[in-house]
Amino acid sequence: MLYAEEVSVRFGGLTAVDRVSLHIVPDEIHAIIGPNGAGKSTFFNAISGINKPSEGKITFQGKDITGLKQHQVAQMGIGRTFQNIKLFGSMTVMENVLCGYHQHVKSGLVHDLFGLPSQMREEAELLERCKELLARVELYDKRMMKANNLPYGEQRKLEIVRAMATGPKLLMLDEPAAGMNPSETEELKQFIRKINAEGLTILLIEHDVKMVMSLADTITVLDHGSKIAEGSADEVKNDEKVIEAYLGKSYRR
Amino acid sequence: MKKKINPRALILLLALLALLTAFPFCVSNYIIQIAVYCGIYIMLAVSLNLLVGYTGIFSMGHVAFFCIGAYTSALLATKLGIAFPLCFIAGGIGAAFIGALVGFATLRLNDIFLAFTTMGLGEVIRIIIQNASFTNGALGVAGIPMPMLAGHKMTRIEFYFMVLILVLILVYLVSRLVHSNTGRTLKMIRDDANAASSLGVNVFRYKMTIMILSCFVAGLAGSLYATFLQYINASNFSISISINIIAMVAIGGMGTISGPIIGAILLQVLPEAIRFLSNYRQLMFGIALVISIMFAPRGLVGLNWKRIPFIASVCEKLKTNNGKEI
Ligand SMILES: Nc1ncnc2c1ncn2[C@@H]1O[C@H](COP(=O)(O)OP(=O)(O)OP(=O)(O)O)[C@@H](O)[C@H]1O
Ligand SMILES: [Mg+2]
Question: pLDDT per residue over B24-49, tens digit each?
């Protein structure tokens, strides 16, 4: 589904991502792990168009997306969340999700200025779809709350739901469990499983190793910008280099 | 989802309209003049609010587009004898065109750079106009004719009504816009441009669109101003006007419909009411701006008026079945 070939990202002299190749298969949950500063987020940003790769090529569903702008990548069907939550703070939960539908709205400026019937109809339909989605993810009762007033765990969830509203084929989550308590993490795990089972391919960065091991079909390990291992949870767990660089001895067997 | 209109709110609205209609017949020419300026400044504040309040584009050069609109309209009317409606539209288009150029140059900058660059470009535009020969340089443009209406020159009262109607149309369209998908997209950009991009929003395109629209309205206001004043001069369009418009938006309430309207009326009428302080006008605008930022960061509209019992009870009466259920 997504192929990254020898992707490098440099910031001046610093090589944050060093010739990383990666292949994401449809319908899988693919995790990227690695120590702080390993280049995980930078790699995400290279895919989603925030940092242009200095070298390498990224293709998504057979199309070259290397160096596309952020909104173009999003329009190709790649949704994402951010390591530090980026909700629209002035808006309610519902409005945040409405924003996710942006690219499916057909009414343009003129429709919006004059409130033409087609625009009114479209807006009403959008509201319905949005309510349906909110009900499905159990945020319906909180739809009128300011997004920033949600409990932390639900802010993370809302950010995921907002990205889901764009109708992505691939959803990239940057440390969705960061800062969550164990019960929130467990809930999130179930949630990710559920949306994956409904047909969303997921690329996940996460430091919660337990969660990654139980969720991911494939795990890629980065260290100092390079890929040091890749495989199933069991394979990665027993890889000497991974234990050395990231997991520590306690994870062996 | 059908919006019900509250009968009480409707009555209030009609009463307000009646007042605005009857008012010019009861007051002096001088007051009508102030009312027309209020209308022009409402247009400026509402258009700047689209940038500053709804999209988070801190333009400090709004006066330049007001100026371009005024000059375009004035020169077409005096040098080529073109009729007012065309001059009016041309004023808007001229400002929108230059707005597009300025936008192209500045809209990728972030806040503080954008603020200074737009301010600088605004000043450059004014200086060019002040020194160019086709604009009559420092002499300004005189003898701008009043619009014709049914074979006679418009009276001040008629001009007032024209401005009133234009302001009502503008406010209606803008309130439509900000409650639509376009408006939501602007707010996304204001809250977090990166998140907006990640949802497929072409941030630069939206910023350009709203810049052009906002400058178009500022240009229309400029045309009205030139026509009503019948004489313009580049010194009418100094940076301090930009700052006044910003003060109107900030004091009234950024990112709201009524805020810039209230701000514009307040800052236009108050200085007239306390004319003996007129030498300190600019100083008072500054102080008002600082006070409002300190004590009412969301502007007058954002204050909790319902703490005052009378207002709370009025709101209660107006609100019944006016609250939109979503
Ligand atoms: N915009 C930037 N400019 C310069 N250096 C950067 C930039 N972004 C990231 N880096 C550097 O690139 C390296 C990789 O950072 P990155 O954020 O990708 O790490 P990460 O694996 O996501 O870490 P964490 O687990 O802490 O989120 C770090 O050394 C970081 O300092
Ligand atoms: Mg990171």
Answer: 888 888 999 999 999 999 999 999 99
